[in-house]
Design a protein that fits this description.
heterodimer, A: 49% helix, 15% strand, B: mainly alpha, 21 helices, 0% strand
Chain lengths: 483, 366
């Protein structure tokens, strides 16, 4: 019995220590993000003036797509409607078995082009290449199925502009998203090699002509919790990581890279599940020793709207895959850990990620298990448990509140009631979404440890991106005056 | 000892534990409440300001009508402009900017005169020192739009502003005013990049006309790649074509690929009947982006001597270079002097980049 008690005690102290470190680190990061976000707002107000040619680079947007029949046409229309030129959109049909190609052909009047050769990155073979007669900026490639990374690499092989953007087929871009991203490249052309944008949840919002006109928090709890989660992830942490040049990931849904460097480092890895993170870490690892000033940035005002998994099952599949990818990448690039030559990546981001993302879920689940067991045996120290729970709740809620504040000051995209909903779901998620997420990540850790690879699964598409009429008149716009 | 008791005794029985816990909970609770209150207070304030702004816009519309029409009552307008508050000033400035967008030079001059009469220029000059960078930037932009030459010294001062955004607004404004007093500080910004976007300084220098040519010439010898790149564009845009070609030709041997590529691109913008030999040779450069720019540039010269280089580039190991060569051949086929031979070469050649270019041409994309 004494051994069991000792183990429980050690674990409890470890959990407590983890929690203290986690809280301090996370709140510092959140405060830093808030400060940076507010600074950007104070500096620029709401006015945005895009650069003109010849000072900005052309962009090729690569859209990997597999069985996206329901969403591909509105997504492509949205991308072609972005206020940016020179622009090219390359849709890569990764061996779809639904009617995706047919709907593309019908909507954009595709004409076949010679396939050609001399593809820089190795991919599954291309089967056909088309250009749209309706809008020749659109190219569509069909290839044998090889997965998302393979499709993106194939698209990069076909891309013709200096910058390449990767956008998921279930995503929409704001009209000015590319101009805002390119502004970051233009501000420091000798050092910036990649820029990621903010990804927000489209579910529940009103979309007109491929543009998100009224974002709303969905009614469904799973989706609403993801709105809060994405807001925290992008606005409460990435702004800070970017400011210290320690970004470990550019979200796969929307990122722009220098094409020459994307190719030079070998494109996206086909062996890892977290290929977007892996590429960013590889860029850091390969470029920083030879170009110490190199920067990978985050543009919080460049927005992409994506469709969130609508239910528990697809969400679980997605999160397990993400977590296995994360573990893969931390192992693959462990050489950077703690090394000064990799700057904030080696000294801050990786240690933080290992602590919070790797050990966090394990300790969290163990903590839940201990509480449940002790409660079953009526051995729980309730005052202690409740105090800890209250602090955990308030720390998490503070992070959500800071993200909401950054959102409100910087962007004001949501209505008043939606902000309240985000705060509310942020609070509630502690009791169901967070434990579930921890459980899934713990499961992913076990899978990773025994060498099992989760599949990609299927995420039901189309519900969020289909045009919908507004359910009610929008609230009187409290748009910032300076906009 | 039971686990629960043991656990509790670890922290909960310590005298400091509950005090510290209570303090942490209170601080976190207050911080949460404060943040949410701040969000909602801000939203409420924006709502009130939006209503006030809507009301003021009507008034500002009349004021601007009066300002831009003659005759007007300067004394009354001066008094009203002085009374503009924090909310009203930026709204008035933005509305003025919107009006000036499509205005002719004469209309701008008239507006500038009216702004001087009514003391608005002084208000704008004072705004260049406001605390919020966006207000300083807006003032700089407005002064630039009306070409207020008296603002040049103050705008030059703003080139050292703490905020990059203000510095860039000042650069744009100085370019728009086009006063040569801005040349030395803009030259400094251009040759020592980092404090303002190179492209923005480039545009301002271009606006200064011939005076900026020596700056671009100096830029061609800069140690910084991006400065040399931008200088190539500057030379192409501001020097007479023949002279520009002479100055740009040596840049085709620059050690940096980006500079060589920019040189090719700029040479393509100042075409003549004879393609520079060095440009044609650059289609064999070791860097793909340079070859790509070179083949595209060759299509701008109505010179059939480019044909062998373009035909050879169809076999370039880089897919994109081959595609550009195909497009260049198709474009060359449309030019009066080289067109005949180019079309004949196209007919005699079977290469997928060429087929691709012909399909794209049929869609109007080449």
């Amino acid at each position: 019995m004494s051994v069991v008690i000792a183990i429980v005690l050690v674990i409890s102290v470890a959990i407590f220590a983890f929690f203290v470190v986690y809280s301090v680190a996370t709140l510092s990061l959140t405060a830093y993000s808030l400060f940076e976000g507010v600074q950007q707002k104070i500096e620029r107000g709401d006015r945005f003036r895009p650069l003109r040619r010849p000072l900005r680079s052309g962009i090729s947007l690569v859209v990997p797509a597999y069985n996206e029949e329901l969403v591909i046409v509105p997504a492509v229309r949205s991308l072609l409607g972005v206020d940016y030129e020179p622009l090219e959109v390359v849709v890569v049909d990764d061996g779809s078995v639904d009617g995706m190609f047919a709907v593309l052909d019908e909507a954009f009047d595709l004409r076949e082009l010679p396939l050609g050769d001399r593809f820089g990155l190795e991919t599954e073979p291309l089967q056909a290449l088309y250009v749209s007669a309706a809008d020749p900026r659109l190219h569509v490639a069909r290839k044998r199925n090889g997965g998302r990374s393979d499709a993106i690499n194939a698209g990069i092989n076909l891309a013709r502009h200096e910058l390449v953007g990767v956008v998921d087929a279930d995503s929409l871009l704001d009209r000015d998203a590319l101009a805002r991203i390119v502004e970051v490249f233009a501000a420091d052309p000798d050092r910036v090699v990649a820029v990621g944008g903010t990804v927000r949840i489209a579910n529940g919002g009103v979309i007109e002509d491929g543009v998100m006109t009224l974002p709303r928090v969905p009614v469904h709890g799973i989706q609403a919790s993801q709105v809060a989660e994405y807001l925290r992830s992008f606005l409460a942490t990435r702004i800070a990581w970017s400011a210290m040049n320690g970004l470990l990931i550019i979200s796969g849904a929307f990122g722009v890279f220098r094409r020459d460097l994307f190719r030079a480092v070998g494109g996206l890895s086909r062996d890892t599940l977290g290929e977007d993170m892996e590429l960013v870490m590889r860029l850091h690892e390969q470029l920083r020793p030879v170009r110490p000033g190199v920067r990978i940035e985050f543009a919080p005002d460049a927005t992409c709207w994506t469709e969130a998994p609508p239910g528990l099952r697809p969400l679980r599949v997605q999160r397990v895959r993400w977590h296995v990818g994360l573990l893969d990448n931390l192992r693959l690039h462990r050489r950077m850990l703690g090394r000064r030559r990799y700057g904030a990546v080696g000294l801050v981001s990786m240690p933080y990620t290992i602590l919070v993302e790797v050990f966090g879920p394990v300790l969290q689940v163990t903590g839940y298990a201990i509480v449940i067991v002790l409660a079953l045996f009526d051995e729980i120290a309730w005052e202690y448990a409740i105090a800890l729970l209250l602090i955990v709740l308030l720390v998490a809620q503070l992070q959500t509140a800071a993200a909401i504040l950054t959102e409100e000051i910087g962007f004001s995209r949501y209505r008043r009631r939606d902000l309240l909903l985000i705060g509310g779901w942020g609070l509630l998620e502690m009791f169901w979404y967070q434990p579930l997420s921890a459980l899934w990540r713990m499961w992913a850790t076990l899978l990773w440890l025994i060498g099992r690879r989760p599949g990609w699964g299927t995420i039901p598409r189309g519900a969020a991106l289909a045009p919908q009429p507004p359910a009610e008149a929008p609230e009187l716009a409290p748009a910032p005056l300076s906009r | 000892m039971e686990p629960a008791a043991l656990l509790a005794s670890t922290f909960a029985n310590q005298p400091w534990f509950w005090g510290a816990t209570a303090a942490i909970v209170v601080v976190l609770l207050l911080a949460n409440v404060a943040l949410f209150l701040f969000v909602y207070a801000r939203r409420l304030r924006e709502l009130v300001r939006a209503r006030r702004a809507a009301r003021f816009e009507l008034e500002a519309e009349q004021m601007l009508d009066e300002l831009t029409s003659s005759p007007h009552d300067p004394a009354r307008l001066r008094a009203r402009i002085r009374r503009l508050d924090e909310l009203e000033r930026p709204i008035a400035a933005r509305m003025l900017l919107e009006r000036l967008g499509p205005a002719s030079t004469a209309e701008r001059a008239a507006v500038l005169e009216a702004l001087r009469e009514t003391g608005a220029i002084d208000v704008l000059l004072r705004s260049l020192r406001r605390r919020e960078p966006w207000r300083r930037a807006l003032a700089a932009r407005t002064l630039g739009q009306v070409s207020a030459t008296e603002a040049v010294p103050a705008l030059i001062e703003r080139l050292d502003d703490n905020s990059r955004y203000v510095r860039e607004a000042a650069v744009r404004a100085l370019g728009r005013i086009g006063d040569e007093r801005a040349l030395p500080p803009l030259t400094d910004l251009f040759l020592n990049p980092g404090r303002a976007g190179a492209g923005i300084v480039y545009e301002a220098l271009l606006a200064l006309g011939d005076a900026s040519v020596p700056v671009f010439r100096e830029g061609l010898t800069s140690a910084t790649e991006s400065v040399r790149v931008t200088s190539c564009f500057g030379i192409a845009a501001s020097v007479e074509p023949e002279a520009a070609r002479c100055e740009l030709d040596p840049m085709l041997t620059d050690p940096a690929g980006e500079v060589r590529a920019a040189t090719c691109e700029t040479l393509g913008r100042i075409p003549s009947a004879t393609a520079p030999e060095a440009l044609a040779q650059t289609t064999r450069d070791p860097v793909p982006s340079v070859r790509r720019a070179a083949v595209s540039a060759l299509a701008s010269y109505d010179d059939s001597r480019s044909l062998p280089f373009l035909l050879s580039a169809l076999d370039d190991p880089e897919r994109d270079v081959a595609l550009r060569a195909g497009e260049a051949l198709v474009r060359l086929g449309r030019l009066p002097a080289a067109g005949g031979r180019a079309r004949a070469a196209i007919e005699d050649t079977e290469a997928w980049p060429l087929e691709t270019a012909l399909v794209l041409e049929s869609l109007g994309a080449v």
